[in-house]
Design brief:
Elements lengths: L3 E5 L2 E4 L5 E3 L9 H7 L5 H14 L3 H8 L4 H12 L2
Antiparallel strand pairs: 1-2, 2-3
Helix pairs in contact: 2-3
């Protein structure tokens, strides 16, 4: 099982591979929500709900989607890696 945890306020650490994903590494031309919708993982409604929570409470979109049950940890790890190189 792949699991992620907040390593610091700017990083996530994948327990599966021990890779640390820095927030700066995910700053690319495509946003995570866009990538997830393009791949049929979430809907526009799911993204809107998660973005509302992010706007009101803060936090990382991927973690919010995990908490909402719309995304599995392994999928988050895969798509964060994809986002890093997009």
């Amino acid at each position: 099982m792949v699991s992620l945890f907040v390593h610091s306020s700017r990083t996530l650490k994948c327990r599966y591979s021990n890779n640390i994903i820095k927030k700066e590494d995910t700053m690319s031309s495509k946003r995570l929500g866009e990538i997830l919708m393009e791949n049929g993982i979430i809907t526009q409604q799911h993204l809107n709900e998660a973005l509302q929570i992010q706007t009101s409470s803060g936090g990382l979109l991927g973690i919010i989607l995990l908490d909402m049950g719309y995304l599995k940890p392994r999928a988050l790890a895969v798509f964060l890696e994809e986002q890093k190189y997009s």
